[in-house]
Specification:
Blueprint lengths: L15 E3 L8 E2 L14 E3 L3 E4 L12 H9 L2 E4 L2 H11 L5 E3 L5 H13 L4 E4 L11 H11 L2 E4 L5 H7 L25
Parallel strand pairs: 4-7, 4-8, 5-6, 5-7
Antiparallel strand pairs: 1-2, 1-3
Length: 191
């Protein structure tokens, strides 16, 4: 009987999957192999992961080790403004490929990010300052990833709002947050 070819090595820590000849279901390397089947391996990569990476508001010294490590380990960065993110990367001594993802290109930018994630790459989504996807166009990318089965991981980080609230004089309970103010007058404030 024919022997199955070994599975291709995993790329960037992602497990390599193989589809058996004859259109069978994909499974871990070796799945579907038998002495009666000739397997011509086709490597299929699992979707990558989108990391929501918060950035400091004002002081680059507020960045955590986990944020720095995440930015250093992803394959690419989707940035609200690549010029601002480049300053952050320079501060950390990192070089990473970047693409723009901001309010006015969520359609094309989201598809560009998604296609790379579906190809198995990992991406850090960053804003100029603060947490992506909180009153931010990143929420559209998160929804797109959810629709396509791409994992999304939120990295904790500096929280200017919580810091300011902690030192404020008024009582901090209750503290409702209905979102951030709209940048334009197109959207009325919530009731």
């Amino acid at each position: 009987g024919a022997q199955a070819a070994p599975a291709a090595p995993a790329r960037a820590g992602l497990p390599a999957l193989r589809r058996p000849a004859g259109g069978g279901a994909a499974g871990p390397a070796g799945a579907g192999d038998s002495a009666h089947t000739t397997v011509k391996p086709e490597v299929i990569y699992m979707a990558g992961t989108l990391y929501l990476v918060p950035t400091p508001i004002g002081n680059l010294g507020d960045i955590s080790r986990r944020i720095a490590d995440t930015l250093g380990e992803v394959d690419f960065i989707a940035a609200e403004d690549t010029r601002v993110t480049l300053k952050l990367l320079n501060h950390l001594g990192l070089k990473k490929p970047m693409l723009s993802y901001y309010r006015h290109n969520t359609g094309a930018g989201g598809e560009a990010v998604l296609s790379r994630l579906l190809a198995g790459e990992s991406c850090a989504l960053v804003t100029d300052a603060g947490t992506p996807a909180v009153s931010d166009p990143g929420e559209e990318l998160v929804a797109l990833c959810a629709q396509r089965g791409v994992d999304v991981v939120a990295i904790p980080g500096p929280r200017a709002l919580a810091t300011a609230l902690a030192v404020s004089r008024p009582p901090t309970r209750p503290f409702p947050l209905a979102g951030l103010l709209a940048m334009t007058h197109k959207h009325p404030p919530p009731p």
